[in-house]
């Protein structure tokens, strides 16, 4: 028996980027039984759920939430703000960026609220999902949340809600920053006349092999950069030029701008 037991789950936004990762993962792993999941969206059954042809779909989030014990909010903040959901006496698990527990409580009546920040790696079962529970969240609720989040990867509870802003901009961004770096490297390779297929394979080797070499020892990144600089070779020249051109400043500016955006969303 899963941690969810006989509870019914409404997944609002079941066909979205995150929803279509979570729904099938929870079903496949037995976290929730197909008869206990209500999938909600406007457009109806999504192919990601083809293995469960009898799954219940609802185009009315209020009806889905009303019939569930656990309500997962996996919709965009602006869409949530158009909904009238009554989630009193329900556990609410929200994935929404920049929507505070206080706002969710105000608009849904829920008291047991968990905000979690998964990322796009949920689609390959590798999300890292920091989460924050309100004081009313029970020990059983925490087990339920852990079971749901674990279905798509790893998760940790955060002690302070405000830390979710940084989590949104860091792990929440998934592969976005790596994509930015890969794109910049591809442009540079092309600028230097490398044939397109060689440029692609070179950048793939840099970006996609790095995780295997750094997994589980990310704190060693500072030392790895220092080692290359001390080595004094060609990579040292490249890294030093990137640092001199403001690489760290650019990353710091990115994270600060993202956190500012999250905080502005919370006040919208
Ligand atoms: N994508 C990511 O990597 C991350 C996203 N988040 C947060 O997770 C939430 C979901 O994001 P994401 O999955 O990317 O969003 P998507 O836009 O991909 O999906 C939104 C989902 O909501 C449904 N939806 C929209 N309006 C309604 C409505 N009125 N009634 C019912 N269903 C509706 C859509 O289906 P339909 O169009 O059929 O109605 C769709 O299933 C967001 O709040 C985002 O901030 C957090 C961390 C990372
Ligand atoms: O870019 C976004 O808004 C989504 C939500 C959090 C991370 N990615």
TrEMBL record:
Principal place of residence: cytoplasm
Location of the protein in the cell: Cytoplasm
Record carries keyword Cell membrane: no
Xref: Pfam families: P5CR_dimer
InterPro entries for this protein: 6-PGluconate_DH-like_C_sf, NAD(P)-bd_dom_sf, P5CR_dimer, Pyrroline-COOH_reductase
Catalytic activity from the UniProt record: L-proline + NAD(+) = (S)-1-pyrroline-5-carboxylate + NADH + 2 H(+); L-proline + NADP(+) = (S)-1-pyrroline-5-carboxylate + NADPH + 2 H(+)
EC number, UniProt record: 1.5.1.2
Domain of life from the UniProt record: Bacteria
Sequence ranges assigned to domain Pyrroline-5-carboxylate reductase dimerisation in this UniProt record: 161-263
UniProt keywords, alphabetically: Amino-acid biosynthesis, Cytoplasm, NADP, Oxidoreductase, Proline biosynthesis
Enzyme type, top EC level: oxidoreductase
Pathway: Amino-acid biosynthesis; L-proline biosynthesis; L-proline from L-glutamate 5-semialdehyde: step 1/1
Role of this protein: Catalyzes the reduction of 1-pyrroline-5-carboxylate (PCA) to L-proline.
Similarity annotation: Belongs to the pyrroline-5-carboxylate reductase family.
Name of the featured protein: Pyrroline-5-carboxylate reductase
